[in-house]
Design goal:
- By secondary structure, the protein is mainly alpha-helical.
- It has four helices and two strands, in the order ααββαα.
- A two-stranded antiparallel sheet has the order 1-2.
- Helix 1 runs parallel beside helix 2.
- It is elongated, with a radius of gyration of 31 Å.
Length: about 120
């Protein structure tokens, strides 16, 4: 078993920190991972271990990573069309159809029964 450099956290201390952290606690099989493997998993999630202060801190992101996460607004043609609800369709059919024997009320059905003569 390799010696841990003086001043660094042991495996049990790292496990305890990982269990207490909100996002890092999602690592599967914390008890089965080696010290090196656990540190690698934590770094893969975007965090690093600060041995002096005994904490898990987020890694500083590079400029490329910051630009990668930016959200842009789509063009007008690329936007998702808004859904028309059944209620709006019924209301529009009543307005367009005028008074064709259909009373405006709770359960109005829009159908092709009424044809213009």
């Amino acid at each position: 078993m390799p010696r841990i450099p003086k001043g660094e956290l042991t495996l049990n201390e790292i496990r305890n920190l990982a269990r207490q952290h909100n996002k890092v606690s999602t690592i599967k099989n914390i008890d089965k991972l080696s010290r090196k493997g656990l540190i690698a998993e934590i770094e893969k999630m975007g965090y690093r271990i600060n041995h002096e202060k005994k904490r898990i801190t987020p890694k500083p992101r590079t400029i490329a990573e910051r630009k990668e996460k930016r959200i842009t607004v789509a063009e007008e043609g690329e936007r998702k069309p808004q859904k028309r609800t059944v209620k709006k369709q019924r209301r529009k059919a009543l307005i367009e159809g005028g008074d064709k024997g259909v009373k405006q009320g709770g359960n109005v059905r829009v159908s092709d029964k009424y044809e213009e003569v």
